[in-house]
Amino acid sequence: MKRNKEKNTKTGGIPTGRLLLLFLKGSKGFFAVSILTSLAVAALDMVNPQIIRYTVDSVIGSEPSALPAFVNSAIDRLGGPAALREKLWILALAVVLVALVSAVFRYLQRLYNTKAAETLVKTMRDRLFRHIQSLPFAWHMKHQTGDIIQRCTSDVDTVKNFLSEQLTSVLRIVIQVALSLAVMYSMNIRLAAASTLTLPVILLYSAFFGKKIGSRFRDCDENEGLLSAIAQENLTGVRVVRAFGREKYERERFRAQNDKYTSLWLKLSKLMAAFWGMGDLLSGAQVLIILTLGVQTCLAGEMKPGAFIAFMTYNSMLSWPIRRLGRTISELSKAGISLRRLSDILSSPVERDRENACEPDLHGDIVFDNVRFAYEDCPELLHGISFKVKAGSTVGILGGTGSGKSTLVYLLDRLYELPADGSGGKITVGGVDIADMRARYLRKNIGMVLQEPYLFSRSLADNIGITRENLPMEEIREAARIACLDETVCSFAEGYNTFVGERGVTLSGGQKQRAAIARMLTEKAPILVFDDSLSAVDAETDAAIRKELDSHLGDATVFLISHRTSTLMNADWILVLDRGRLVEQGTHAALIAAENGLYRRIYEIQRAGAEEEKGEEASGREDPGETTSEPEKEAMEGGESRE
Ligand SMILES: Nc1ncnc2c1ncn2[C@@H]1O[C@H](COP(=O)(O)OP(=O)(O)O)[C@@H](O)[C@H]1O
Ligand SMILES: [Mg+2]
Fold it and tell me: What is the CA radius of gyration of the chain?
């Protein structure tokens, strides 16, 4: 589960263009309105300087109007420039009206921009979530939860900001610059050319700084991620931190990272301050140049004062957008990285069933045929395991930690897949290769209780009844009764409505396991797997649950995984696993009869341990979280490291 950030960003995946189109679904219309309204804003920005120019040159002065013909005829109807000279308020009103209309368009632009961005980001999240839901279990095990969440939040936001803020503003800037330049060239070519020549300097300057700022931003982002990872780990692992008195150490660790993060931000703000300050200086210098040239042009009689004022206004409209454009170019790379990180997820292949995948009856015999398996980038773990489980029977699996017991049942549930070319053997149920079945169907028909069950932050009833919608309360209680949980639940003040998990009651390990068993029982699946799921309940409860299960499981085929021989002794058949090899199999009676057998040795050690314990006081054993007694542990260790 290492961090694959670097590697992943290089793998590419879906082409960026296609990815964007994918996300734009549903928000294209909003984007179109947003772009059109920004066009209108840019165009309206051109108007007021012309009114000023007309006022100065033709109303106050006596130059012929440079306004379009339809405006001139409207002015003539009002009585011409002479009449306007008497009623200057009309010109003022025109300026205000233009500003008003412009404000309305700005409002619409903002509104539709937000609509576009939010629709887009919603599409993105939905798509990501849907995709992540259908990615293979192996993918989830390989990726860090924090990393996936960061991609789905921060990276989505970066892309959103880019599309909504940067992209539309780039469009607006390009239009604004183009319009300003066009008007400027129409007013005075030489002066306009001078202004144009200075623009690349500003653009280069801000692109250069923009890149630097971009990389500093990235540093900050990454360090923010580290900081929140420390906080998150501490919150979820609060018990370990308290129990081991690690508060001081954790505080120091947080402080160190916090310091680093803060200093990075300070460095970034220094750079930003320099960027904006020098940028202002540069823009000022540019204005100075045009001002000097403009004054000369005016003095030479090539330009009227009003036109000059208007020209300077357009010129000043150029500088800011150009600086902004430089920053945006650098933002582009940031958004590009985020997009690639998203496309990594979206282009990871989802689980797919084979063509003509079937849904056969799963009440048949289960056969593992020479199963070999290795986790990705790991040495082989299961070395050619073959066995047969009769339909409706109970098979016990005994083995030390890490011997591959859980892996065996993951393969049965197709949480991990055997190689498609058959080199890893195959698993069949009722003669049908599980690889040919629909994965969802297979999993629905295999009830699994994992060693460390996960309960959702919901009520107990909801947790147990999660397998089917609107499960009647009687069925939930019946399942809980079989799992020996009903009595415990009834002792809770709120019974089955007790809220568990975060911000609720914390169940003991054994209670959680029993809740998980109850949850699995409601599924009524033909194949049931108990993966060390009685490890946290004491021996008596273990026996009681098994007794209940025996009389309620009917014709289900059961896999019972445990490190306790006492849990397994009543199974119809027992498999003994040692470091990925099936070293013994048989009934309990046959296995303890075998001289020097691993099973027999473990059985004897565990029995001796149990008797010793019986001699001691039996109180306080109601439901301890961890009940593996020392001798048992030793017995398992012995099993692991014999020779
Ligand atoms: N997703 C994984 N990737 C790599 N190695 C794994 C993965 N899951 C388990 N392992 C390794 O495989 C071995 C067997 O694990 P497991 O089947 O859980 O054993 P058991 O259930 O018998 O304790 C262990 O050494 C474990 O570290
Ligand atoms: Mg296990």
Answer: 37
Residue nearest atom 26 in ligand 1 by C-alpha distance: 402
The pLDDT value recorded for residue 381 is: 95
pLDDT at residue number 330: 66
Band of the pLDDT at 615, cuts 50, 70, 90?
low
Q: Which atom of ligand 1 is nearest to the CA of 408?
A: 17
Residue 44, token pair as written in the block: 């309206």
How far is CA 117 from each of CA 150, 160, 362, 523, rounded to the nearest angstrom? Answer: 19, 6, 48, 42
pLDDT in tens, 258-291: 999 999 999 999 998 998 888 889 888 999 999 9
Is the full-model pTM beyond 0.70? yes
Give me ligand 1 centre to Cα 399, in Å.
13
Top-level CATH class of 5-347?
A: mainly alpha
| Cβ of 565 less than 6 Å from ligand 1 | no
8 pLDDT exceeds 50? no
d(CA 184, CA 177): 10
403 in contact with ligand 1, CB cutoff 6 A: yes
The rounded Å distance from CA 140 to ligand 1 centre is 15
Q: Is 405 in the pocket of ligand 1 (CB under 6 A)?
A: yes
Write the residue with the smallest CA distance to atom 13 of ligand 1. 402
- The CATH number of 366-640 is 3.40.50.300
DSSP bridge pairs for 382: 373
Q: Is the C-beta atom of 15 inside 6 A of ligand 1?
A: no
Q: In this structure, which residue's CA is closest to atom 7 in ligand 1?
A: 375
Strand partners, 437: 358
Write the residue with the smallest CA distance to atom 2 of ligand 1.
375
- Give the residue extent of every domain in the chain: 5-347, 366-640
Among 494, 476, 493, smallest CA distance to 485 is for: 476
Closest ligand to the CA of 531: 2
Helix, strand, or coil (residue 462): helix
Q: For residue 148, which amino acid is it?
A: I
* Cβ-proximal residues to 393 (8 Å cutoff; 6+ apart), any chain: 557, 558, 572, 573
Q: Is 39 in the pocket of ligand 1 (CB under 6 A)?
A: no
Could you give the CA distance from residue 396 to residue 410 in angstroms, rounded to a whole number? 16
Closest CA to ligand 1's atom 5: 375
Q: Which ligand is nearest to the CA of 143?
A: 1
Q: Is the CB of 627 under 6 A from ligand 1?
A: no
**Which pairs with CB-CB distance under 8 Å and at least 24 residues apart come from 164-167?**
164/113, 164/114, 164/116, 164/117, 164/120, 165/113, 165/117, 166/328, 166/331, 166/332, 166/335
CA of 200 to the centre of ligand 2 (A): 65
DSSP labels, 153-204: IIIHHHHHHIIIIIIHHHHHHHHHHHHHHHHHHHH-HHHHHHHHHHHHHHHH
Q: How many CA atoms lie within 13 A of 277 on its CB side?
A: 6
Is the distance from CB of 328 to CB of 166 less than 8 angstroms? yes
CB of 600 closer than 8 Å to CB of 576: no
pLDDT class of 293 with cuts at 50, 70, 90: very high
Instruction: Count the residues in the chain.
Output: 643
Q: What is the mean pLDDT of the chain?
A: 85
- Ligand 1 centre and the CA of 406: distance in Å? 7
Q: Give the ligand 1 atom nearest the CA of 580.
A: 14
pLDDT digits (tens, 9 = 90+) for 317-364: 887 788 777 777 767 777 887 888 888 899 899 988 888 999 999 999
Query: Does residue 402 have its Cβ closer than 6 Å to ligand 1?
Result: yes
- The Å distance, Cα 6 to ligand 2 centre, comes to 31
